[in-house]
């Protein structure tokens, strides 16, 4: 089934040039019925870079993440990973929606960590981390189990391999979810408010894992309300309001010395709270 062209740059050939960013978003729009949720988003993320998206609720941050990995189909604009168009493909000069198998291959390069963990309740921590490996990567179950054990140890849960989600705290469940995303060897990790569902005393253990990933050079886009954490780990902070990125720059520039009135007002409210 052919699709309306989602915007400029959609005919980029597979295989990125050496200077192509890992993630390139051009003029992305998204509507839900009559509501224009994303209004022309442009964003570039280079390999090894960490971008924090901040802003008020309803500004489109989570929708942007879901459009990046095509959990939500964008209505206009393009998303490229390593120069490859996500969600659509060009055939004989006509743009088509990507077939599910091809889309799954692209999504494999983008790990997604959600607010509410989304673990399989009937599977242990190790089984949750192993599942995608043998279903998507076709690894043997023994290899998937070994990798799951290594990754759970990496996020501080080496002693919880056989625990079920109901036996784990919220922070531990989120760390299992991070290990599950890492198990597919993604080039990019997307975090959608990874600490918003946690009690305050559990936030630190999840942020410590993300901080460790940052130190190891993982490319990440993080939607967060943890402003001090964004200041600490992000190379770029983008402030979103009303479906647009209204200010972006270094953490010091955007968080400590914002210039846009919307950013100034938002941070003033956060600081006063």
Radius of gyration: 19 Å
Determine the number of helices (DSSP H or I, runs of at least 4 residues).
Answer: 9
State which percent range the strand residues make up. 15-25%
pLDDT under 50 segments (min length 5)?
Answer: 1-5, 7-16
Mean pLDDT metric: 90
Report how far apart the termini are. 50 Å
Overall outline = globular
**Structural class, from helix and strand content?**
alpha/beta
Largest sheet: 6 strands, mixed
Total strands: the figure is 12
| Percent range of helical residues | 25-40%
Strand and helix order: EEEHEEEEHEHHHEHEHEEHH
> Largest beta sheet: what is the strand line-up?
8-9-10-3-11-12
Notes on the structure:
The structure is a single chain. Helix content is 35%, strand content 25%. It is globular and about 50 Å long. It is built from 9 helices and 12 strands. It has helices at residues 61-68, 100-107, 125-135, 141-154, 170-182, 200-215, 227-233, 251-256, 261-272, and strands at residues 23-32, 35-45, 50-54, 76-81, 84-85, 88-91, 94-97, 110-113, 188-192, 219-223, 236-241, 244-249. It starts with 22 loop residues before the first strand and ends with a helix. The strands form 3 sheets. A 6-stranded mixed β-sheet has the order 8-9-10-3-11-12, sandwiched between helices. The protein has a 4-stranded antiparallel β-sheet with strand order 2-1-4-5, with helices on one face. Strands 6-7 form a two-stranded antiparallel ribbon. Helix 3 (125-135) crosses helix 4, helix 4 packs across helix 5 (170-182) and helix 5 runs parallel beside helix 6 (200-215). Strand 9, helix 6 (200-215) and strand 10 form a beta-alpha-beta unit. With 273 residues, the protein is α/β, with parallel strands linked by helices.
């Amino acid at each position: 089934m052919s699709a309306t062209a989602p915007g400029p740059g959609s005919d980029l050939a597979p295989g990125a040039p050496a200077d192509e960013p890992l993630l390139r978003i051009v003029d992305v729009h998204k509507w839900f019925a009559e509501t224009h949720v994303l209004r022309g988003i442009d964003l570039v993320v280079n390999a090894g870079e960490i971008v924090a998206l901040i802003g008020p609720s309803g500004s489109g941050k989570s929708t942007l993440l879901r459009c990046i990995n095509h959990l939500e189909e964008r209505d206009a604009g393009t998303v490229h990973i390593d120069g490859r168009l996500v969600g659509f493909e060009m055939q004989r000069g006509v743009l088509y929606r990507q077939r599910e198998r091809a889309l799954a291959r692209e999504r494999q390069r983008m790990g997604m960590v959600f607010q509410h963990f989304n673990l399989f309740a009937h599977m242990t921590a190790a089984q949750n981390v192993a599942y995608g490996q043998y279903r998507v990567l076709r690894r043997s179950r023994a290899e998937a189990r070994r990798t799951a054990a290594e990754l759970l140890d990496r996020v501080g849960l080496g002693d919880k391999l056989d625990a079920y989600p109901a036996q784990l705290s919220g922070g531990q469940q989120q760390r299992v979810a991070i290990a599950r995303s890492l198990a597919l060897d993604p080039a990019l990790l997307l975090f959608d408010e990874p600490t918003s569902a946690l009690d305050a005393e559990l936030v630190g253990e999840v942020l410590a894992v993300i901080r460790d990933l940052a130190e190891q050079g993982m490319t990440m886009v993080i939607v967060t309300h943890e402003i001090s954490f964004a200041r600490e780990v992000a190379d770029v902070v983008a402030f979103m309001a009303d479906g647009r990125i209204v200010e972006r720059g270094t953490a010091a520039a955007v968080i400590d010395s914002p210039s846009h009135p919307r950013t100034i007002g938002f941070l003033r409210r956060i600081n006063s709270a």
